[in-house]
Design brief:
373 residues; alpha/beta; 60s Ribosomal Protein L30, Chain: A; four-stranded mixed beta sheet; 22% strand
Length: 373
């Protein structure tokens, strides 16, 4: 038998039904909002060689902000072509996504879910157009990372094994030396053999010293001495330091007097040497000695600098001797004229005199030393 429903009960049922419908609608709205289906959006495309297991509906972030979802995945048309992702993004963030933006596939945590992270790009570039394509970077696959780690561990194990083998060999050598085996082991344990070797070493050093003394004596023997004397091989460090003599000098610029990187005098250099020759004739005495010193500031190759400055000093000496006879102090008397190339390192004893003579590092100095007696 039917039963009539009361007025208030009917109203309560209607309110309950409306509430359920409202909650369902709100849930659907929230779900659609999570999938960016109700708010204004724009689209961008990104192409990848591999998407690493991403699916439509996965999240897209921009600088860590929840910015949208993957709307669809477009498979490649031919083998070897990239996979294209169409991303649906919040319209409010469009001004941040520039034409040089980059899409990267990243993981949440070490083994978490994957998503697309967008790096906005430079502020100086224009915003991306709707459905425009941005650059992409593929995912760092965990399997590839583990493979690379395994290779590194294998190399480390190999290195440790080789080190252990080397230590075993070193230990064997030390043990053989301790037992007096081999030449070195006998030398270590046999005091008599050690004394004989030390005596032989001392005699060898004495022989070398004696040979050096004989060579020095030969250098001072005529006519060999004239060759060495002209190049100031004796007391090379003191040749510019003569505190007991009056010192006057003239300097020539290497850049103006010689061809670049050579010991060949230029016409301007010869004219400057003519001035030096005329000055020399009025500034010397019979006891005056001449030193022609060449310097440079090239520090790249010291041997090359030494050879070049020596040849430049020799060229100046040859010109002045040939044209102005600066090696003659009279009819039957010669004058010492030494030509020395110092490279880029002047002698230490004369460093103050050298630095005061001129500020040009690439030069040739013609120096007259006259004893004060």
């Amino acid at each position: 038998m039917g039963r009539n429903i009361g007025r208030w009960r009917a109203m309560a049922s209607a309110v309950f039904a409306l509430a359920v419908i409202g909650l369902a609608g709100f849930a659907l709205y929230q779900l659609a909002g999570r999938r960016w289906q109700v708010q204004p959006t724009f689209h961008v495309r990104a192409q990848f060689e591999s998407i690493g297991g991403l699916n439509a509906g996965d999240r897209v972030r921009l600088q860590g902000i929840d910015a949208g979802v993957i709307e669809r995945i477009v498979p490649p048309g031919e083998p070897g072509e990239p996979v294209e992702l169409v991303l649906r993004l919040d319209q409010r963030l469009k001004h941040l996504v520039r034409s040089d933006a980059t899409a990267k596939i990243v993981s949440q945590g070490f083994v978490g879910l994957r998503l697309v992270e967008i790096i906005p790009g430079l502020a100086s570039t224009p915003p991306i157009e709707d459905f425009g394509t941005i650059r992409s970077e593929g995912p760092n696959d965990l399997a590839e990372l583990m493979t690379a780690t395994r290779r590194s561990l294998d190399r480390l194990n190999s290195t440790i094994t080789e080190a252990e083998e080397g230590l075993i060999q070193v230990r064997g050598i030390v043990d053989s030396l301790s037992r007096g085996e081999g030449t070195l082991g006998k030398l270590i344990r046999d005091d008599g053999l050690y004394e004989n070797l030390a005596s032989l070493s001392r005699r060898g050093a004495q022989t070398v010293d004696a040979a050096q003394e004989n060579l020095d004596a030969m250098k001072h023997t005529w006519p060999i001495s004239r060759y060495y004397d002209g190049r100031a091989y004796y007391d090379r460090d003191r040749i510019l330091y003569q505190p007991g003599a009056l010192r006057v000098s003239r300097s020539l610029s290497v850049d103006e007097s010689f061809e670049p990187g050579r010991a060949v005098l230029t016409e301007q250099g010869k004219r400057q040497l003519d001035e030096v020759g005329r000055w020399f004739q009025g500034a010397t005495r019979p006891t005056t000695e001449v030193v022609i010193a060449a310097f440079t500031d090239e520090n790249g190759n010291e041997d090359r600098s030494q050879i070049l400055t020596q040849e430049q000093a020799n060229a100046v000496r040859a010109y002045l001797v040939q044209k102005y006879s600066i090696d003659s102090a009279g009819w039957f008397r010669g004058r010492k004229v030494a030509a020395v190339g110092f490279g880029s390192h002047p002698p230490g004893l004369a460093s103050e005199e050298v630095s005061q003579s001129t500020t040009a590092p690439r030069r040739v100095d013609v120096i007259l030393f006259t004893p004060r007696t």
